[in-house]
Amino acid sequence: MTERAEPGEDMALSLRDITVRFGGVCALDHVSIDVPKGSVSGLIGPNGAGKSTLLAVASGLQPVDTGRILVDTEDLTGARPQRFARARMSRTFQAPQLVPEIDVRQHILLGLRSFRSQGWNAKAGALVRGITRSELDRAERLLAELGLSEVARRSPMELPLGLRRLVEVAQCIATDPRILLLDEPSAGLNRVETQAFAAIVSRLSAERGIAVLLVEHDMDLVLEISEQLFVLDFGELIASGATEDVTKDQRVRDAYLGTVKEGA
Ligand SMILES: Nc1ncnc2c1ncn2[C@@H]1O[C@H](COP(=O)(O)OP(=O)(O)OP(=O)(O)O)[C@@H](O)[C@H]1O
Predict the structure, then answer these.
(1) CA-CA distances (angstroms) from residue 229 to 42, 99, 128, 153?
(2) Ligand 1 centroid to residue 29 C-alpha, Å
(3) Per-residue DSSP letters for 39-102?
(4) Is ligand 1 within 6 A of the CB of residue 18?
(5) Rounded distance, CA 137 to CA 194, Å?
(6) Ligand 1 center–CA 177 separation, angstroms
(7) pLDDT digits over 70-95, tens only?
(8) Ligand 1 center to residue 201 CA distance, Å?
(9) Which has the closest alpha carbon to 100: 139, 145, 157, 59?
(10) Which ipTM was obtained for this model?
(11) What Pfam family does this protein match (any one) (predicted)?
């Protein structure tokens, strides 16, 4: 099912000529993007532009009508989401996929064992039993790194949305991803929480060499942390490249960034 493809040495994820149609709607129209290793890329565009569809394609959740998906050097087109996870691809969802029955630390322990709480059941609960000292230490370090130590023993459902999103990110990080897809992580966060979140994502990407692809409507956040930008409009990629170049592109400014001032 998977085969070696031509290596995009600096690219963690390459989507080539991706088309996805839902009946008469062309959600993605021959879109190609390259997400570099170890940096943050922003994926922006108005409502309905195809951003969520592209993330679903990139994580193996959405079949494509045309195109190829290369993760590092492997062609995973048509592979199941589990195969993407084995290729060290991890993602968050607009509604964090967390469960009330296990505490924050147990979510991290699941992540360390390469499980997500998505589809959690009694079997997954058993997976966090018999944990080793080393796993516990790693979980505690990660909790501290993301500022979650104080809430480690609480159910994520008792926490405000901003912390729930961080728990999901922490669980993703625990799986030791090469690629992290973030779907509107700042939705529902206040300015201070968004700033804190931005700092954490930038640091994790730089320190751990994670390629981050960020779908986000908060342009301040996107422009602050993204080294590259991809701009979708009605399923079409209208611009891509270094953030400072893309934000000067007249078509992008007209379609989406009308309020961004020169030099922003
Ligand atoms: N499962 C589906 N069935 C039918 N149409 C869909 C489906 N998913 C998405 N679409 C359509 O595909 C287009 C792209 O949707 P998508 O959710 O990817 O956009 P988006 O950029 O993520 O939007 P938003 O910013 O509002 O989340 C839209 O016209 C949407 O209505």
Answers:
(1) 5, 33, 38, 38
(2) 13
(3) SEEEEE-STTSSHHHHHHHHTTSS--SEEEEEETTEE-TT--HHHHHHTTEEE--SS----TTS
(4) no
(5) 28
(6) 26
(7) 998 799 999 998 899 889 999 999 88
(8) 26
(9) 157
(10) 0.97
(11) BCA_ABC_TP_C
Enumerate the CATH 3.40.50.300 domain ranges in the chain, comma separated.
Answer: 8-88+177-259
Atom of ligand 1 nearest to the CA of 23: 4
Residue type, 160: P
Q: Is the shortest distance between the CB of 146 and ligand 1 below 6 Å?
A: no
d(CA 11, CA 241): 13
Residue 239 pLDDT: 94
CA–CA separation, 167 vs 57, rounded Å? Answer: 24
Both tokens assigned to 223: 């422009």
Tell me the C-alpha to C-alpha distance, in Å, between residue 18 and each of 26, 55, 215: 11, 12, 17
8-88+177-259 — its CATH code? Answer: 3.40.50.300
**70 strand-pairing partners:** 14, 75
pLDDT number for residue 260? 46
d(CA 183, CA 186): 9
User: Residue 145 contacts by C-beta under 8 Å, 6 or more apart in sequence?
Assistant: none
Statement: residue 130 has pLDDT above 90: no
Q: Where residue 52 falls among pLDDT bands split at 50, 70, 90?
A: very high
Taking CA atoms only, the protein residue closest to ligand 1 atom 29 is 48
Q: For the segment 208-262, what is each residue's pLDDT rounded down to a tens digit?
A: 999 999 999 888 899 999 999 999 999 999 999 999 999 988 888 877 765 444 4
Tokens for 139?
Answer: 């979980």
pLDDT at 112: 87
What are the DSSP E strand ranges found in the chain? 3-4, 11-22, 25-36, 40-44, 66-71, 74-75, 89-91, 179-183, 211-215, 228-233, 236-242
